[in-house]
């Protein structure tokens, strides 16, 4: 990619900056970072946490709305299929129709991800998120007012397309606008916002599950955060990196970065240094990219790591179990309505707390230990879930199922939940990162859609016990795959991780 017009540097210092990485450049030119850190190392540039927080929060609402749909659908499925609370004459859904209610949003997310792969870079991160907000809002209105199953499914699919655009653009916007020193924390917190959405969906389900037509309120309330998302993204600046890639020019990118840095944006030298690093990175990426380079030998291992983590994240059953949580608790022996959705709230709280554990420990314990420990716990919990259905435990089976399910959720949330997305952002080489990440996202939503669609039919035909045991076998395969191919990336820069694949390629 050619450098935007006006890029010529006016001093030897800035020329030197352009040949360094973004972080080195910022350290070189930021006066506040000169040699006062521990051991004489430069201090990290200061962060305006108010502006940085807003630039994180509004895009992260796109993820929160994804999580909300998972939690709300758990209760909505109970409400819709009850003759007492449905408020419709089409409440008697078949297993396939129940699966369609859940999976239609995932099909939409799959289509949205594919569309984002084609037009995402043309729209830009900001406009993608604005489009997602419009789709979320329109879908909320459709679902709330749905007079038939067909209209409800159309609303669910529309919501899903919004999910696809939001989950493609939000991580990129957060990464591309946040200061380097805050980027790891914010990417981890993004998963916490998704879990907060799931918990809020469970709480909403608990409040409305016994009301006639309560499912309409569960889905309709998503309109409020959708409006907040649209207002926030209209106010925030464009991603400066996207502006450079789109050819908008250095001046517009610098203006966007100045806004993103808040009260520290008036440090022109630091902004200029960061922009220079962005330009060099964009030029190097453009010179090495290409559709076929994704499948070159040196990229096969990182590609297999990212795609396998996205696949196992879904086919070990966790996301689908969350969609059907209230129904699963009803089948396990809890009375329907308030009791089942109340237990779902407890499940959401456990999920939220364990995500916090992962956020606090991922940089000290490491990615690989969390994955191996968490997936081992998932496997054992799934075996206990399946075994409790076979054993003659009477009423005790209900409590064994509850404890095992909470352990399963907790172990997932310190492993596949946050770590899979984090490693997808780390393992792909720069030249293919965009394409590889899109392929991993498509794998994620495609497998999520497939599992959610067939899960009710599988449970009906093979029984819930055999379903849990099948997930346990898949988890065991996932454990072996992680042990064999996933390295530890804790404490490594993206360049050091990329060097691992180059060394392996040379070694062969």
TrEMBL record:
One of its GO terms (cellular component) is membrane. InterPro entries: MFS_dom (IPR020846), MFS_sugar_transport-like (IPR005828), MFS_Sugar_Transporter (IPR050820), MFS_trans_sf (IPR036259), Sugar/inositol_transpt (IPR003663), Sugar_transporter_CS (IPR005829). It is found in: Membrane. GO terms for molecular function: transmembrane transporter activity. The keyword Transport applies. It comes from the Eukaryota. Belongs to the major facilitator superfamily. Sugar transporter (TC 2.A.1.1) family. The chain crosses the membrane at residues 54-80, 100-120, 129-151, 157-175, 187-209, 215-236, 345-362, 369-390, 396-424, 436-455, 467-486. Residues 20-44 are annotated as: Disordered. Residues 55-490 form the Major facilitator superfamily (MFS) profile domain. CDD domains: MFS_GLUT10_12_Class3_like. It is a multi-pass membrane protein. GO terms for biological process: D-glucose transmembrane transport. Its main location: membrane. It comes from [Myrmecia] bisecta. This is Major facilitator superfamily (MFS) profile domain-containing protein. Residues 26-35 have a biased composition (Low complexity). Keywords: Membrane, Transmembrane, Transmembrane helix, Transport. SUPFAM superfamilies: MFS general substrate transporter (SSF103473).
